[in-house]
């Protein structure tokens, strides 16, 4: 936490140092996001992953953010992130596991919606 605060507010870096600082800040944000996920603070985790995702191809940021979206039932955003992560690294076991979890949760969600819809129709007729 301290490292990220120092880097964010120190503007005396040259170009090479700015690049290294950006990388360090991204790492700090992703580590913090991992902690927030374990603590159940999913909105904070997704915010930190968004902040860390300087590189649009950062699989770790996409992966962790998709986990936080999955836990808050924002299935569309979770799917977008996990599919991008899979496109970048299709052999990543953890990413594939979260993708399977997402598919299971979507299946469960559609099943519940179908039951609700069926109940509504049966009560009308």
Overview of this protein structure:
- The protein is mostly helical and 125 residues long.
- It has a single domain (2-124), classed as Tetratricopeptide repeat domain (Serine Threonine Protein Phosphatase 5, Tetratricopeptide repeat, Alpha Horseshoe), CATH 1.25.40.10.
- The protein is 82% helix and 0% strand.
- It contains six helices and no strands.
- The protein has helices spanning 2-9, 15-39, 42-52, 59-71, 75-88, 93-124.
- Helix 2 (15-39) packs antiparallel against helix 3 (42-52).
- The longest helix has 32 residues, at 93-124.
- The chain is elongated and about 70 Å long.
- The mean pLDDT is 87.
- Keywords: Repeat, TPR repeat.
- TPR repeats lie at residues 59-92.
- Pfam families: TPR_2.
- InterPro entries: AIP/AIPL1/TTC9 (IPR039663), TPR-like_helical_dom_sf (IPR011990), TPR_2 (IPR013105), TPR_rpt (IPR019734).
In short:
The protein is an all-alpha fold and 125 residues long.
List keywords for this structure.
125 residues, mainly alpha, Serine Threonine Protein Phosphatase 5, Tetratricopeptide repeat
- Uncertain stretches: none
The mean pLDDT is 87
User: Which structural class matches the secondary elements?
Assistant: mainly alpha
- Tertiary shape: elongated
How much of the sequence lies in strands comes to: under 5%
- What would CATH call the class? Mainly Alpha
How many beta-strand runs?
0
Query: CATH topology, which one?
Result: Serine Threonine Protein Phosphatase 5, Tetratricopeptide repeat
**CATH architectural grouping:** Alpha Horseshoe
> How many domains would you count in the coordinates?
1
Number of helices: 6
CATH superfamily: Tetratricopeptide repeat domain
Alpha carbon gap, first and last residue: 59 Å
Rg, nearest Å: 19 Å
Helix content: over 70%
- Major beta sheet, specifics? none
Order of helices and strands: HHHHHH
